[in-house]
Design goal:
Length: about 130
């Protein structure tokens, strides 16, 4: 089991990450400790920060989710999933210009990311509609 793997090798980040994902699926806040520990062991892997943000987003803790997406971006400015989810949250808050900037960044990082272009267009369309 993953728990046994961590007992045998305490710095086994893949097993720690899997435990975090299992607890997150159960909506158990213990997942945060596993993800934080995983990031402490390997701070070059930003997935644990992204996983914490996603967990907070699923729990409706939007300010915390945004904070962790921003940390993820700060540590790896090429991690497009964090920009995407942050942009989506900003769209939900009607911060359309800020959201559009997140999608702009994704198109620079991943020029073939069709969803980023679509959501950027959606932001601009909503802004135009609001101005009418």
């Amino acid at each position: 089991s993953f728990q046994t793997a961590v007992q045998v090798q305490p710095n086994y980040t893949e097993a720690i990450e899997q435990l975090g994902l299992l607890y997150a699926a159960q909506k158990n806040d213990l997942c945060i400790k596993y993800f934080q520990n995983c990031f402490k062991i390997d701070s070059t892997n930003v997935f644990p920060l992204f996983a914490i943000a996603t967990y907070y987003q699923a729990q409706g803790a939007i300010p915390k989710a945004k904070e962790y997406y921003q940390q993820c971006i700060f540590k790896d400015n090429q991690y497009s999933k964090a920009y995407f989810n942050l942009g989506w949250l900003l769209m939900q808050e009607d911060s359309l210009e800020k959201a559009s900037r997140q999608f702009d960044i994704i198109t620079m990082v991943e020029p073939t990311n069709a969803e980023a272009y679509y959501n950027r267009g959606l932001c601009k369309e909503i802004q135009t509609f609001i101005k009418k």
